[in-house]
Each structure stands twice: as structure tokens, then as C-alpha cells.
Amino acid sequence: MAQESSTAVATPPGPAAGHGAREGRSAALPLAAGGIAGVLASICCVGPLALVLAGIGGAWVSTLTIFEPYRLVFLAGAAVALAFAWRRVYRPVAECAPGEVCAVPAVRRGQRIAFWLVAALVLAAGLSPYAAPLFY
Questions:
Q1: Domain limits of the chain?
Q2: Suppose 42 and one of 79, 80, 87, 125 were both cysteines; which one would form an S-S bond, judging by CB atoms 3.0 to 4.6 Å apart?
């Protein structure tokens, strides 16, 4: 009997083990990337305005305009990241195994709310150069 217990080997976890935690992060990563790209896209136009409104000023504030040529690149990156996030957030529940994060209704609702908040941030970043002159 002692020999049987010593030869018993624990089976390694299958590919589904730990998949639920990875699933939650995989939806959050494109959302974070889209939000960061949206902020970077608006830093050239909204950054100086926000700093002046906060009472922070100086000649260095005008150097933030060096990001202007990259604005469309950041917006394109944000759009691609949001497309991936939309695909992960709005996929059918039937594709989720029971017990995975994507199958929990409260988590799905939270991810959808976060998605639309980030999408609004990216939209505001895209429209900021047209609205910013109204505040100067």
C-alpha cells in the first residue's frame, strides 16, 4: 500500500485551469490600452487647457503641442484597442464555460460600463481639438 501512494503522481492542471482569471484580464487589457491611447491623443490639445485651468502655467506648457502630429496615430490605436475590447465584452455567453468570469452577469455589466466610459473618453479626445478653441 505504501508503494501505491508513493507512485501516485498528481496530474497537472489542464488548459482550462485558471482560465477565468485570465479571461477577466483579457477584456481589461484592450480597455486600458484604449483609455491610455485616448489620453495620449488629447494631451496636445486638452493638456495645456487643463493645466491653465488648474492654475499651472509656464512656457513649458506649449511644448505639449509636439504630440499633435501623433494624434491620429493614437486615435487609430485607441480605435483598434476598442474594437478588440468590444469583441471580448460583447461576445455571446454561450462561448463562456460555466464559472468563467465572462459568464457572470455582474462582471459582464461592469465590463460593458467600463467599455462605454473608455469609448466616451476616446470620442472626447477625438473631438477635443475642435472644442478646445471655444475655451480660449
A1: 25-135
A2: 125
Name the burial class of residue 21, with classes exposed (0-12), middle (13-18) and buried (19+) by CB atoms within 10 angstroms of its CB: exposed
Q: Are 74 and 46 contacting, i.e. CB atoms less than 8 angstroms apart?
A: no
What is the DSSP track for 3-51?
HHHHH--PPPP-TTTTHHHHHHHHHHHHHHHHHHHHHHHHTTTHHHHHH
In what helix (H) or strand (E) does residue 14 lie, and over which residues does it extend?
none
SS3 107: helix
Entry pTM:
0.62
Instruction: Specify the DSSP class assigned to residue 119.
Output: H
Through-space distance between the first and last CA atoms of the chain, rounded to whole angstroms: 84
Cα 133 to Cα 19: distance, rounded to the nearest angstrom: 48
In 3D, which of 23, 16, 14, 18 has the Cα closest to residue 101?
23
pLDDT of residue 113: 92
- For the record, the C-alpha cell of 100 comes out as 468563467
71-122 pLDDT, tens digit per residue, is 888 888 888 888 888 888 888 877 777 777 777 888 889 889 988 988 888 8
